[in-house]
Amino acid sequence: MESLQELYRIGRGPSSSHTMGPSFAAERFRKAHPQADSFQAVLYGSLAKTGRGHLTDVAIQEAFAPLPAGVIFNTQQADLKHPNTMDLEAFRDGESLGKWRVYSVGGGKIEIEGRPSENPQDVYPLSTFDAIKAYCRENGLRLWEYAKACEGPALWDYLREVWGAMLASIRHGLGTEGTLRGGLDVQRKATLLHRQHPAGENPETRENRLVCAYAFAVSEENAGGGVIVTAPTCGACGVLPAVMRYHQERYGFSDEEIVRALATAGVVGDLIKTNASISGAECGCQAEIGSACSMAAAGLSELFGMDLEQTEYAAEVAMEHHLGLTCDPIAGLVQIPCIERNAVAAMRAINAVSLANFLTDTRKISFDMVVRTMYETGRDLFSKYRETSEGGLAKTYRE
Ligand code: SF4
Question: 226 CB less than 6 Å from ligand 1?
């Protein structure tokens, strides 16, 4: 498994696979062709079908700026090796200087066809929850200690930065009102949720309202192209920060304790990324929101000092009840159902941890099992339910 620095990326939304990945690819391509005077990008698959709504063209053009870059949306070509495929071509005086086929494989990561994978080194020797659990038990480690042992102290500085960026996105989201761009006329609602104090509000309702307000704040920032942290993706970036911030506020957990929880959540997200997928285009929303919920449940169980079995149960439950969840963003925008879905998943993560308090000993399903199931289910989903906006809510809304 790779470093958690590859999982938590700080950058601009609204989509790790549709804006961060293509933008990163365009920057690399531009640097590799310093003599070019113009560029062209052809987008295929999900990038072509939802790229406009996800601002893929804007991200690519900004990465090539000030040089001009044409962006073509090829929605016809099927039979692609990866659903997020793009061709980049550089020109000088109209003559082609070179071409890359690039895959945006999720979480902001890219692969270039025909080149040895530049994937970062694996820093975790073990890659199943079962194996990590056995190792931790043998050595008396918690999951965050395992992460620290594998990655070294540099991880801690990075996670502190991640936590700072998460808090900033909540703060900024709570302070911003208005309508999100894209044409759906979606109002930003984080401030509204945060400010409301209905008379006689009970503690449970207050908890739901605040957790949702924080999740809305981050997700609206993402939808508006603001800076967020992929956790594990842009579309699902609101779940983990909402759960962490609410519990820090309510119970006074220190930043250091939150950073440990982020490490624990990161190990869970990394396991899903390694053994299945965190890409909505590859496996539907279960891979994005399901993974985020699982990470948040694991992080919260760390804050509450729960043991390894309970953490596994909480993370498993959080994923299990997202199995089959489709990705069908209306108009290709990361707004409906995405923003609200982050809030619902944040509450579900808290529920999963509550269940883990009582039912861990009775469980039949392991975390590794549910991750494998998520991947197989995702591969079985029709492409219209995998970030193409051709089915589900996106289709019904259009009709
Ligand atoms: S529906 Fe889920 S997977 Fe699809 S764009 Fe929205 S948050 Fe991402």
Answer: no
- The arithmetic mean of pLDDT across residues 100-128, rounded, is 87
pLDDT confidence of 15, banded at 50, 70, 90?
A: confident
Strand partners, 107: none
Query: Are the C-beta atoms of 312 and 353 separated by less than 8 Å?
Result: no
Higher pLDDT, 388 or 205: 205
Q: Which of 112, 141, 161 is the last residue of a domain?
A: 112
pLDDT at 272 over 80: yes
CB-based contacts of 354, cutoff 8 Å, min separation 6: none
Q: Tell whether 134 and 244 lie within a shared domain.
A: yes
Distance in angstroms (rounded) separating the CA atoms of residues 361 and 251: 27
Q: How far apart are CA 327 and CA 251, in angstroms?
A: 35
The residues near 264 (Cβ < 8 Å, ≥ 6 apart) are 142, 143, 144, 147, 298, 299, 301, 302, 311
- 388 or 218, greater pLDDT: 218
Which residue lies with its CA nearest to atom 4 of ligand 1? 327
- Return the pLDDT at 119: 66
What is the span of the domain harbouring residue 255? Answer: 129-398
Ligand 1 binding pocket mutation candidate from 230, 282, 283, 289 (most atoms within 8 A of CB): 289
Same-domain check for residues 387 and 340: yes
Same domain (yes/no): 89, 225: no
The pLDDT score that the predictor gives to residue 118 is 67
Cβ(235) – ligand 1 distance below 6 Å = yes
Number of domains in the chain: 2
